[in-house]
Amino acid sequence: MEQSNVKSSAQGANGHAKFDLDIEAIRARARRDIESGAVTDTYRADRETVLRLLNEALATELVCTLRYKRHFFMARGLNAEPVAAEFAEHAAEEQAHADRLAERIVQLGGEPDFSPDGLQKRSHAEYVEGDTLQDMIRENLIAERIAIDSYRQMVEYVGDQDPTTRRLLEEILAAEEEHADDLSDFLAKN
Ligand SMILES: [Fe+2]
Ligand SMILES: [Fe+2]
Fold first, then answer.
1. Closest ligand to 143 CA?
2. N or C terminus of the chain with fewer C-beta within 10 Å?
C-alpha cells in the first residue's frame, strides 16, 4: 500500500518495512497550498463536519459559562460558600474550554460562532437558572453529563482522522468528568 507520503515500503536490513517520507512532495505541497494555513493535503477528516461540531461545542461551553456565573452570584444558604466557589472555578474552566475550541476552529480555517443569536439552540447543554442551591447543583450536573456524552461521541466520530482535534476533545472530556464528579459530591452533601 503506497501512501502519498511514503516513497518505498521495501524491506530494511532488520526485516521491518522501510519507511521514508517523500519530503520533496511534502515540501512542494506545503509551498503550493500556503493559504490553507495549518490544514494540509493529508488532513483526513471531513473539515466541514468537524467545524460544525466544534462550533456546537463552543456554544455549549459559552452557555455553561453563563449558567455557572449566574449560579455563582445567586448561590445562597448555609452551605453556599464552597459550592459558589466551585461554580466560579467551573465557570472559568468552561470559558477556557471555549477559548481552546475557538482557537482550533480558526486553525482549521473556520470561524468561531460567538453570536448570542441562537446560542442556546446551538448548545447541547441547557441554561437553567434553578431556584435553590440544590436545583443549581443538579442542573449543573445534568449539563456536565450532557457535555460528557457529546464530547465522547465527538471523540468517537473524529477517531484517528484528526489527532489534534481528538486530543483537545479528550482533554475537555476529562475536565467535564471531573466537574460532574465534584457536583455529585456536593449533591450528596447538600
Ligand atoms: Fe467545558
Ligand atoms: Fe464542565
1. 2
2. N
